[in-house]
Amino acid sequence: MQCHALRDEDKIDRLYGEADAETARKVAEHLTTCAACREEMTGLREARKHLAAWGLPAEPRPRRALPAWALPAAAAVLLALAGVVVLRGAEVSFDEGRFSARLGSSDREVRRLLAEQEARHTREMETLRASLARPATVSPASAVSLGDVERIVRDAEARADERYAARFQQVTDRAEAQRRLDLARVSASLSYLEGRTGQHLARTNELMNEMLQASYQR
Amino acid sequence: MGRSDEQLVEDCLAGDVAAFDVLVDRWQRKIRGAAYRIVGSEEEAQDICQEAFLKAYRGLPSFKREARFSSWLYQIALNLSRDRLRRRKNRSWVSLDDIEEVRPLAATGAHAGRGDDWVESREIQRLVTLAVAALPDEQREVVVLKEYQGLTFPEIAEIQGVPLSTVKTRLYRGLSLLRDRLGRQGLGENLTQERTYAVPRTS
After folding, report:
1. pLDDT at position A96, please?
2. Cα separation of B185 and A211, whole Å?
3. Which among A12, A60, A173 has the least Cβ separation from residue B114?
4. Is B200 a residue whose pLDDT tops 50?
5. CB-based contact, B147 to chain A, within 8 Å
6. Cα–Cα distance between B40 and B33 in angstroms, integer?
7. Which candidate from A11, A13, A54 shows the least CB-CB separation from B128?
8. Which pLDDT does position B190 carry in this prediction?
9. How far apart are the C-alpha atoms of B117 and B115, rounded to whole Å?
10. Among A12, A27, A100, B162, which is most buried by a count of CB atoms within 10 Å?
């Protein structure tokens, strides 16, 4: 049974807690005596509760904007490279479907450059070895900060492990839940098909009986 | 404390184009969310959102200062959403027949266990989505703006250009329809505990 004692607006104001004092008192008084309105308000509250279940889809990942200097910088680097290639007498050719490039420098020049580079690397490695061989002089402050860093890293790793474990569990749960849902749907469909098969059998039996009766009558 | 929307509008009109970026950052999520719930498509919602900001940017010189910027922006987005829905053959994105065919999920003891909550919440979400989609446009708009956007009744009245009482009546009717439809799908207050499979329709 529908009760029209309250206006729709009053019910909405009450539902969203936005009724003024007078309306709130009027609605509250009416609800103490009217079961139909109480039931209606409960139903509306329930509908609101279910609305909260509808979430938004995941945010599209925003495209990372390049800084304003990136494009000119990239162009400058490309131009510089092209300049170096041209100035050093390099040659790029596409012949008979094959792409080939040749540096303008002679083999001897290339070997000399490589030897210089190797000698430089050897010197740098020796310097590095010597510095590592010296006893480390770590100040107490830096020792503490190193320990702190280690602890922070360990904590972060532990947290990451926990997150991975939780995520894995979540994925497992979802897969399991989906499996259950599929099973339930299959089960429901089978039940439905069984029902249909039963109806067909019953109908066939009925027809057979009618045919037998007709043949007896003959 | 950042600049208010109105201040940002003033700054933008004075030539500070970056001020409009702040407005976009501030409102795009909400506008896209509202559009998505009204038209029911992520891609279309994204288009509507972009188009709404473009229209707003072009229309800034004609923006009347007595209205809130956000209300004006919602108005633009809602108009674009209505255009999209109007252009479709079937004005809403699902028919009532589709709603009737949705079958409630069984929650029998045999299937109870870990993961059932997740499945059930997905199912509820699906039913709610379809039920909201089947509402008349103006009721769906009010439900979305109130329930999901958290706007006040005067704000919604301003956006829809109707009296306050009309907004509340639309919301009341919308919620009543939702209650009835969700109830039929096994999500009513009395049916929540007992859900069974409906026999599928024969074609």
Report:
1. 58
2. 44
3. A173
4. no
5. yes
6. 10
7. A54
8. 43
9. 5
10. A12
Residue B108: per-residue pLDDT:
38
Listed residue (B91, B150, B134) closest to B142, CA to CA: B150
- Which chain A residues are within 8 Å of B111, Cβ to Cβ? 180, 183-184
Distances (CA, A) of B3 to B10, B19, B108: 10, 9, 55
Of B194 and B155, more confident: B155
The tokens of B189 are what? 């207050």
Mean pLDDT of B67-91: 88
Q: Would you say residue B166 has pLDDT above 80?
A: yes
What are the chain A neighbours of B143 within 8 Å (beta carbons)?
Answer: 51
Q: Does A189 touch chain B (CB under 8 A)?
A: yes
What residues of chain A score a pLDDT lower than 50? 137-144
Tell me which H or E stretch contains A93: strand A91-95
Say if B41 is an interface residue toward chain A (CB within 8 Å): no
pLDDT at A111: 80
Asked if pLDDT for residue B202 goes beyond 80, the answer is no
Residue in chain B closest to A50 (alpha carbons) equals: B128
B179 vs B105: CA distance, rounded Å: 18
DSSP class of B109: G
The one-letter code for the residue type at B7 is Q
Share of chain B above pLDDT 70, in %: 77
Q: Rounded to 5 degrees, what are φ and ψ at B178?
A: -60, -45
